Structure formats: structure tokens, C-alpha cells
Amino acid sequence: MELCNCIEPPWPADELLMKYQYISDFFIALAYFSIPLELIYFVKKSAVFPYRWVLVQFGAFIVLCGATHLINLWTFTMHTRTVAVVMTSAKILTAVVSCATALMLVHIIPDLLSVKTRELFLKNKAAELDREMGLIRTQEETGRHVRMLTHEIRSTLDRHTILKTTLVELGRTLGLEECALWMPTRTGLELHLSYTLRHQNPVGFTVPIQLPVINQVFNTSRAVKISPNSPVARLRPAGKYMPGEVVAVRVPLLHLSNFQIHDWPELSTKRYALMVLMLPSDSARQWHVHELELVEVVADQVAVALSHAAILEESMRARDLLMEQNVALDLARREAETAVRARNDFLAVMNHEMRTPMHAIIALSSLLQETELTPEQRLMVETILKSSNILATLINDVLDLSRLEDGSLQLEIGTFSLHSLFREALNLIKPVASVKKLYVTLSLSPDLPEYAVGDEKRLMQVVLNVVGNAVKFTKEVVKDTGSGVNPQDTPKLFMKFVQSQPLAAKNSSGSGLGLAICKRFVNLMEGHIRIESEGLGRGSTAIFIVKLGIPGRSNESKLSFIHKGPGNQVKPNFSGLKVVVADDNSVGRMVTRGLLVHLGCDVLAVTSGDECIRVVTHEHKVVFLDVTMPGTDSFEVAVRIHEKFAKRPDRPIIVALTGNTDRTTKENCLRVGMAGVVLKPVSVDKMRNVLSDLLDHGYLVESQ
Q1: At what positions is 4-aspartylphosphate found (predicted)?
Q2: Neighbours of 602 (CB within 10 A)
């Protein structure tokens, strides 16, 4: 069998190609050997790289690849078997290392990817932190601007300064071309251009408040971008430049309604001002979020500052009004005090001047009554006494009413016999009732205390007034059977100068003051008084209740009361009693002397306090001293009389004789050691009681 030679003859080598392959393998080998050197340097310098052994393995793979290419340089020519063995060994090692590296990368790549993911995450976080830091810096910058603007805005409480400062500071901070403020008119139907940044005196610009753009801004508290061509934004002159962006924000206005002290102002949410802010024209600048927030905050601060300014203005107006009212009230108070002083001075003078002639009339009439008189003369004298007593009562009523109205009248609280008071009132009323042929009785409850604590004089006045009215208007029985009163007219009975019985007024002697004074006395005694009547012609019933105290001991102050009933009194004898009367008024001095002489006294009358001090001796037992003598301090006279007699038994009893009914006079008299106060006018019976008290007790048991 003939063998066929199938091996083709070797392809002739291309010298040029071989040369290029040879050069390429050389540089590949050079590059492969340089890369491990770089990896070794990286591993040496990197102390935290987690895959150093992988780099070593990868470096070995590259070195083997480089060695393979380097050995391959000797295969381009005839080479020995040793070269072929070395070449084969290098390729086998390269294959093993490359497979091991490939298998190792399968496990390493996910870790490397996760590292990459974390790296990207960290980069994103870093970017986010950068953005947040930028936002924080922006907010800090905004806050700084807000604080600066707030300080400038709220450094004054003048609303015009506040608004102008706001526009200027916003324009400077935000670099605005124009900033304007539209304020609502009084009608609330239009907005008026009140303040601008660039124009000093804007006038004549108004827009309807119902414009859609205005409603859009007023319906939100945020800053709103509006069209540069809207009516509220047309503040710049027309030109070829593109207008900048415009935003508008509302400014709440505080509406004060009926502002009063202790009341909060009413905030109307329908009243807003409109602030318009414009960026420079022909500019690519846009509004940023932090700038809009700055505008919103400033608008709120302006609202707060305006509210404070409004409250301050209203407070200033209220203060001015209050000051005017205080000035008027102070003037009225001074005028009232002057009027009260003038009235009191007038009353004091009139009190003294009226009581002096009344003292003469009553004293002389009572003296005349005790003389031998014909029935006709006695009737005349009794009429004079009755009329004089009515006039004296009227004088007392007028003075008491004046003091009641100005609050100067105070109750004279003391312990007194309640039973004796009612019996005395009965004894005083009986003669008047007997003239009208009326029968009057007194019924006291068994549990009524005999003694009480209160103002005996005022209580007696109320009782006498009420019972006197009953007797005055009663025809047949004790119960008032007069003309009666309409129920709706009963409140008027307690008014001044109102007669209780208009139909019988012509037959009565009342002044219309009695019930008015009684009501005030009863009120002072923490009680009340009322009139009950079923109508005209059916009579009336008077009912009053007062609050009295009860003494601590049942026998307290029993010796302080003198029962004045006519049945148990014996007229005392004062013959030889030496008395001094000091009175500057000749009539009063003569009348008082006449009363004392009639009672048997030895009387020395003087006209001044100094004369009284000079003439009084230890033989004089009683000194009647008028405390209203002009040019004389009667209280000083009393002190000097006491000083004149060192021994107390030698001192005369000093009694004040006055027409002044106020408590101060009585307190001053008692303060200087006087034994009591005798109030003019004085009748014979009254003077007799005064002397009896003085001789029995050394002082007046009660004011006479």
C-alpha cells in the first residue's frame, strides 16, 4: 500500500508580519510585567483594601501571561525542545491561574458590586446632606434677614413708618425693582396704592377689590406668583425690556371695633392689604422658595406690627379721652366739693340763725304758757307753740335730709329703753289725737326686749312721723281712714316734697319731707318701710322694720333713762342755783336767762368767752356756753375754765348751748370736758329736764 504524503509544505513566512508580531509580543510582555509592579505598589500603599490576596493572584496571572508572550518571541524561528517545554509549561500555569482567577472573581464581583452600591448610596447621601446644608444655610440666611427686617419693622409703632420701612428693607434684601402696598379704602370696595418703593408719593391709583387676582391672593396665606400685566403689578413704565417675575401676598389688618378697657379688639379676617414685589426687568432671575418664605414671614410680622400700632393708637385715643374725662370729673368733683362746702356753710349759718329766733319764740311762749292766762290767750299761746314746734321740726328735717344726702349723717348708737320710747311717743301723740276725738292705744309684744341698742333719737323721729301721719289723716279709728293712695303712687310718697294725701294737703301742715327722711333713717338702721293702701278713699297702713341690738346684760344702763311721762314727774326747785350764761346774741342771751330765772336760778349773763372766764367763780354750779360765738373759741374757753379751778369739786358744770346738730360739735364738746350739749330751741320743760340731769348726775344723760 502506497502511503500518501498528506502534510502540506509549510507556508512561507512573511517576514514583515513576523516582525510585527515579534514587536507586539515584546510590548505585551513589557506591559504585563509593568502591571504587577503597579499592583504590588498599590497593595503596599493600601492598608485597608480587603482583597489583597486577589490582587496577588491577579498579578501572578498577568506575570504568567507576560512570560508566555515573552517566551513566544523565541518561537518565531527555529527553536529547541527546551523552548517548547518552557512555552508549554508557561501556558499550562497561565491556564491554571487564569481559571482560578475567573472562579475567584465569581465570588468577588457581588461584593464589589455591593461596595459600589454603598458607594453610590453614600454619594447620594452626601449630595442630600449638601442640599440640606444648603437649605439650612439658606434658612439661616432667611432667618437673619427676617430678624433684621422684624427688628427694623417693629422698632417703631407708627404704622406709616412700619409700612415704609418694610418696603425699603424688602427691596434692599431681595434686590427688588419695585415693591408696593395696596390698602383697602374706607368703603372696603377698592384697594388704594398707598406705599411704593421707588415712587415717593403715589396717588390716584385704585383697583376694585373683587378682581380675580386679588381674590386669589386673599384666599391663601402663601405668597402667590401673579402676572406682571395684572392691574396691581402695572407700576413700572412700559419699555422694551421683559418684566421680571411678580409675587403678591396678603397682609391681615386689625379692625378695632368699640375698643374698651378689659376688652380684646375684634379681628376681622375680611380686611387685608396687598403687598406686591417685583424682580428686576429683563432678568433671568426667578423667585426661590426661601425668598417666598421670607416674603410670607415678613407679611405676618407686618400684620403683627400693624396690630400693635393699631392697639397703641386706640389706647392713646382711649387714654386721651380718659384724661379728658378725668379732668372733667376732677373739675366736677371740685365744683361739687365747693358746692357741698358752700351748702354746709350755708346750712350751718342758717341753722344757727333760724334756731336763735325759734329759741326765743318757743322759750318765751313756754314761759308765757305758765302764767295766768285767759282761755283765749292760752289758746293763742298753744297755737304759737304748736306752730313753732312744726317750724322747728321742718328745720330739723331740712338739715337732716341734707346730711343724709351727702352721707355725713351717722347714727348715734347707744342703749335705750324701747318700752319707754313707745310710751313717750304715745304720750306725745295723745293730746293731738284727743283734739280729733280719736282713741290711741299702745300694744307691746310680750317678747319685746325692754332695752335695745340703736339710735333712740332717729327711731323716735320715725315713730312720731308715722304715727303722726296716722292721726293726721284718720277720721274715725286709729287706722288711717284718709283719702288713701293709689298703689302705683306709693313709691312717690318717699320722695322729697311729695305730699302723701294730695286731696287733704290744704288741711295738713306737712312739708313733704317726713316720709323721705324716715325712709333714709330706716335704711341706715338696715330696715325698710312701706305704705299699703287699697286705693283712694280707703285709707293707708304704714309698716316699717328696723334692726336694733340687744344689750349684753338686762340691767345695763337702767339708770341712764328718765321716764318723761307726765304722771310720774315732780317739778324740782332750783331756787338759788347760780348759773352763768355766755351768749353773744342779745336775744338768745335774754331768752336763756329768762328761762333760768323762771326756774328760780340766780343767773349771770355775759357776752363773750373772755368775760365768762373772768366772772365765773366756784359759787357758780352751771355754765351755759354758746359754742357758736364769733371770734371766740368756745372749746378753749371750756378748757381755761377747768384750768382756773384746780380742785375738781370747785369746777362748774359746763354745758354747750348750740344750734348745730352735727356729731363733730358734740364730740368736740365732750372732748374738752363739757357735761353735755343742749340744742336750741329750748322750752321751759326742756330746761327743767337739763338742770335736773345736771344736778342728779353731773352730766346730761342724753342730748337735749
Answers
A1: 626
A2: 15
What is residue 557's three-state secondary structure?
coil
Does residue 128 register a pLDDT over 90? no
Locate cell 362746702: which residue? 341
> Count of CB atoms within 10 A of residue 520's CB?
20
Q: What distance in Å separates the CA atoms of residue 488 and residue 378, rounded to the nearest whole number? A: 44
Question: Do 398 and 434 meet the contact criterion of CB atoms below 8 Å apart?
Answer: no
* Segments in 370-417 forming alpha helices (H): 375-406
Is the distance from CB of 417 to CB of 548 less than 8 angstroms? no
11 compared with 195, residue with greater pLDDT: 195
On the question of pLDDT at 131 being above 50, the answer is: yes
Which residue has better confidence, 358 or 511? 358
Q: Does residue 178 contact residue 197 with C-beta atoms inside 8 Å?
A: yes
Instruction: Map residue 180 onto helix, strand or coil.
Output: strand
Give binding residues for ADP as ranges.
469-472, 480, 496, 511, 515
| Neighbour-count burial of 410, counting CB atoms closer than 10 A to its CB (0-12 exposed, 13-18 middle, 19+ buried) | exposed
Q: Which residues pair with 431 in a beta bridge?
A: none
Give which of 395, 354, 310 is closest to 585, Cα–Cα.
Answer: 354
Which grid coordinates belong to 512? 313733704
Q: Which of residues 563 and 223 earns the better pLDDT score? A: 223
Describe the crossing of helices 456-473 and 418-435 by its angle, rounded to 10 degrees. Answer: 30
pLDDT in tens, 431-466: 777 777 888 888 999 899 999 999 887 888 888 888
Residues 6+ apart with CB under 8 A from 587: 356, 357, 360
Locus of grid cell 379728658:
324
DSSP state letter for 452: E
Phi and psi torsions of 603, nearest 5°: -110, 135
87/69 Cα distance (integer angstroms):
9
Highest mean pLDDT: which of 90-94, 102-106, 261-265?
90-94
Which residue numbers belong to the known binding site for Cu cation? 65, 69
Beta strands 578-582 and 602-606 are parallel
Q: Which residues are annotated as a binding site?
A: 65, 69, 469-472, 480, 496, 511, 515
Average pLDDT over residues 9-18: 56
Q: Which residues pair with 179 in a beta bridge?
A: 277
Selection from 120-124, 319-323, 656-660 with the highest mean pLDDT? 319-323
Straight-line distance from the first to the last Cα atom of the chain, in angstroms, rounded to the nearest whole number: 190
pLDDT band at residue 133, thresholds of 50, 70 and 90? confident
Q: What is the pLDDT of residue 99?
A: 75
**Can you give the pLDDT at residue 247?**
93
Above 60 in pLDDT, residue 139?
Answer: yes
Look at residue 565 and tell me whether its pLDDT is greater than 80.
Answer: no
User: What's the rounded mean pLDDT across residues 201-208?
Assistant: 73
Answer for the pair 55, 49: CB distance below 8 angstroms, yes or no: yes
Q: Does the N-terminal peptide bond of residue 681 adopt cis geometry, omega within 30 degrees of 0?
A: yes
Q: What is the DSSP letter of 454?
A: E
